Amino acid sequence: MAPQLTLYTFKLSLWAGAPRLAINELDIPNVKMVEVDLSKAENFSPSYLKINPNHTVPALEIDKEGKKEYLDDTKSVIEYLDRLTGNTLSLPEKKSEIDSFLEEMHDKADVGNPLFFTSGNAEELEAKKKDIIPFLEGRIKGWESYLKETSEHADLYTNNINETKALLANYTGGNAEQMFALNKHLWEVGSKFLDTAESILTKNGGDYLFGTYSVADIHFTPYLFRNLLVRTPEQVFANRPNLKAYYDRIQARPSFKKTFQ
User: Fold this and answer.
1) What single string gives the DSSP state of each residue in 68-113?
2) How far apart are CA 193 and CA 80, in angstroms?
3) According to the model, what pLDDT value does residue 197 have?
4) Do residues 228 and 240 touch, judged by C-beta distance below 8 A?
5) What Rg do the C-alpha atoms of the chain give, in angstroms?
6) What tens digit of pLDDT does each residue of 213-259 get?
7) pLDDT, tens digit, for every residue of 4-15?
8) How far is CA 205 from its chain centroid?
9) What pTM does this model have?
10) φ and ψ at residue 84, rounded to 5 degrees
11) Residues pairing with 71 in the sheet
């Protein structure tokens, strides 16, 4: 009997987009989607922390005849979904290269979220205010409500409240120069990784990162999608013609349209 799957996700989440894309690409039926509203800090609720102590999305619940287990990070969720459908996204002969690419993307090059929440100049700050301020204020209210509910995670909630208030101050009248500098550095890091992707596409000469559409493309698609939310296409694709052609092919796939449009 096939396991019952529940994916905990958030529509605007960078990395929760990857398993949603995999589910659509692999045509996995009957996956229940549970929206965890990050703008209300629901990923920090006492009940969700029992599912994913890392307080992140995605998380995958695997229910095998009442026995439940949870996967709590993007890579393990996608690996499971791929195994479930016969490893059709795996390229064993290129596993080492793909693993290295994914490790960098999910580690030092993982700049999509901080780029989203920070601004690089006064103009960008003004443009983002209407979205960022209510998002951050909603998270603070969420943590404050959980503090009243339980003392179990008090340090976690208090630290997040203080850190988010400091970020929020940049958008409500504080000196934002330090944030501008951070945003510039983050984009430099992200740009270098885009150059890495361009080099891989040039080297392999195929339609996708490692020739055949694979797990690497599943992870990289939401990464690139997020880059195009925080920077213009001209910035993302500057001197990267293969990356632009690649993204055009990715966007044309039915799985992309189901996931991101």
Assistant:
1) EEEE-SHHHHHHHHHHHTTSTT--GGGHHHHHHHHHHHHTTT--HH
2) 26
3) 98
4) no
5) 19
6) 999 999 999 999 999 999 999 999 999 999 999 999 999 999 999 99
7) 999 999 999 999
8) 27
9) 0.97
10) -60, -30
11) 60
Query: What pLDDT does residue 130 have?
Result: 97
Q: At residue 174, does pLDDT exceed 90?
A: no
Structure tokens at 129: 């205010």
Residue 101 is predicted with a pLDDT of 98
Token couple for 48:
């969700």
| Full strand arrangement of the beta sheet holding 32-35 | 32-35, 4-9, 59-64, 67-71
Residue type, 50: K
Give bridge partners of residue 4 from the DSSP assignment: 63
Assess contact for 9 and 65: CB atoms under 8 A: no
Those residues whose C-beta lies under 8 Å from the C-beta of residue 162, and which sit 6 or more positions away, are: none
Closest CA to 116 of 231, 220, 39: 231
User: Which band of pLDDT confidence, cut at 50, 70 and 90, is reported for residue 261?
Assistant: confident
Q: How far is CA 123 from CA 118, 119, 222, 236, in A?
A: 12, 9, 26, 19
- Residue of 60, 23, 16 lying closest to 38 (CA atoms): 16
Within 13 Å and on the Cβ side, how many CA atoms surround 159?
Answer: 5
In whole angstroms, give the CA distance from residue 89 to residue 211. 12
Between CA 129 and CA 118 the distance in angstroms is: 10
| Cα 80 from Cα 82, distance rounded (Å) | 5
CA distances from 106 to 136, 223, 249 (A): 23, 10, 23
The answer to whether 58 touches 7, Cβ cutoff 8 Å, is yes
- Measure Cα distances from 159 to 84, 128, 258 in Å: 39, 24, 37
Is residue 215 within 8 Å of 78, Cβ to Cβ? yes
- 5, β-bridge pairs: 62
pLDDT at 69 over 90: yes
